[in-house]
Amino acid sequence: LSLKFGDIGDLKGLVIRFLLTTSYYQLSVQNWFSLHRLQLLYNHSIQATFNATRIYAPASYSYHCEHVSSLQRYDALLIPSSANDLSKLWEVTFIDFQIQGFNIQEGHFAYAKDCASFFSPAILMGLVMSLILLLVLAYALHMLIHLKSLDRHYECKASPAYFGQMKDSDIGDEKEPLRSSGNESYELRNQQVCKIYI
């Protein structure tokens, strides 16, 4: 696939050539195309050649990427073919790049396979936060499962040292006279004692 720009400034007959290949993969049971190489030509000679990496899609699809570039800040999908080539003198960047080599119908791109990674920074941050929340939930469940009931059983009864003031009408029922050596004392029948079992 050749894009011919003609004369641009000092560049006579500028052409950008995309060398595409197609292959059949048994695992996916379909043909895939890939961008094998990118060449820059002017003055009727090849001036720079870049090997393309990770630019591929099913043959019935197109390939789309926000940036296809030889620069590291854009993930460098275009690599200079050799150290002796003039490619290192060039910086090539395509913005909103889309290409389809085969099965083009009515001059329109087919459905695009995008170069966006499944593990973008936003997705990775979401996964990390989900993992943290799962760990907190697991810790909370662990604490609930191992939560022990109190081993102390209380029988709530009033202290024997304190007796509330009783009405006169109840005195006959609540106390019974004890007679010993002329002194009159009373025994409280409904004693309430505090017992703690540990």
Helix count? 2
Oligomer: single chain
Relative strand content: 35-45%
Number of structurally distinct domains: 2
Low-confidence stretches: none
Distance between the termini: 88 Å
Number of strands: 13
Order of helices and strands: EEEEEEEEEHEHEEE
Helical proportion, percent range: 10-25%
- SS class: alpha+beta
- What overall geometry do the principal axes of the alpha carbons give? elongated
Gyration radius, in Å: 44 Å
Mean pLDDT score: 77
The main β sheet shows up as: 6 strands, antiparallel
Domain V-type proton ATPase subunit S1 luminal: 1-102
Pfam families: Ac45-VOA1_TM (PF20520), VAS1_LD (PF05827)
GO biological process, one term: regulation of cellular pH
Protein name: V-type proton ATPase subunit S1-like
Describe the structure concisely for a colleague.
By secondary structure, this protein is an alpha+beta fold.
Describe the structure.
With 198 residues, the protein is an alpha+beta fold. The protein folds into 2 domains: 2-116, no CATH class; 117-157. The protein is 16% helix and 43% strand. It has 2 helices and 13 strands, in the order E-E-E-E-E-E-E-E-E-H-E-H-E-E-E. The chain has helices at residues 121-145, 168-174, and strands at 2-8, 11-25, 30-42, 45-52, 56-58, 62-69, 78-80, 93-99, 112-114, 153-155, 175-180, 183-188, 195-197. Strands 1, 2, 3, 4, 5 and 7 form a 6-stranded antiparallel sheet that branches. Strands 8-6-9 form a 3-stranded mixed sheet, with no helix packed on it. A two-stranded antiparallel sheet has the order 10-13. Strand 3 (30-42) and strand 4 form a beta hairpin. The longest helix has 25 residues, at 121-145. The radius of gyration is 44 Å and the shape is elongated. The two termini are 88 Å apart. One of its GO terms (biological process) is regulation of cellular pH. It is a single-pass membrane protein. GO terms for molecular function: ATPase activator activity. One of its GO terms (cellular component) is proton-transporting V-type ATPase complex. It is found in: Membrane.
